[in-house]
Amino acid sequence: MKSKYISLIVVIVILTTAIFYYTKNQESQEVDVFISNYEGYVAGYVNDTIVLTVYWLRSYDNFGGVYGVRNLPDCLEVEGIDTSSIDTNSKVRVESISILLRLKKAGKCTLKNAYLEIRQGNFTRKASLGEIEFTILNPSERNLKVIASIEASIGSEPAVPKLMYTILNPLNESVEIVNVTFRVPGLKVLDFEPKEIPPGKTANLTVIIENTSELNELYIIKPLLIYKIGRREEIEEMPLEVFHYAQLPRG
């Protein structure tokens, strides 16, 4: 099973950038901010899991409470919520709240009105999880194997990322890549290379993305790979690995 959490290096970069953004020129101000509003698309198999991480930045350190996720669509369920706090030299304290979601039912659905709820006595905070479209497939034989991928892109300036996957074709027939697809407002696939993976070979699939609107702060993208094997006419589908994107402006 894929790791439940983004690599520690990525988390540190996100937190460092976030702290810089919210503390620059605000040393005398109180900070109480969620970074949580995702846009995205996730293709996966039933029982696959993904992680959505919410970042809570506060100028006081009494984190804690009862955490829950409300208004999930029927195709998803919460497997667990993990929290960790980062104590920095800044006055701002950061808590990362990682929500592990299981894809439980085949079909299409959209996470749209879901939110993280935190209760501390009579005090309740809510953080929207944004809007993510899901395409959930029944488990099937996986003819191709993704052996490596870029998991995340973090920056303080807007920049459209490239998706990159190293894919092994273990078959004795060539594979034609028909399409790499996802549905995210403001983003679309402009091109991808290569279009074919020879039998028994590995290829570095690069997906070039074009943005048609202002970029959001947080994205999660797990595309659907559409391909054909040899001379067969049947279309095969396979989810690729998850990619996280965070764009936190300098202010």
Structure write-up:
The chain folds into two domains: 130 residues, Immunoglobulins (Immunoglobulin-like), CATH 2.60.40.10; 103 residues, Immunoglobulins (Immunoglobulin-like), CATH 2.60.40.10. The protein has one helix and 21 strands. The strands form five sheets. It has a six-stranded mixed sheet, covered by helices on one side. The chain has a four-stranded antiparallel sheet with strand order 1-3-6-5, with helices on one face. It is mainly beta and 251 residues long. It is elongated and about 65 Å long. A hairpin with a 2-residue loop joins β8 and β9. Helices cover 6% and strands 54% of the residues.
Features:
single chain, 251 residues, mainly beta, Immunoglobulin-like, 2 domains, 1 helix, 6% helix, 54% strand, elongated
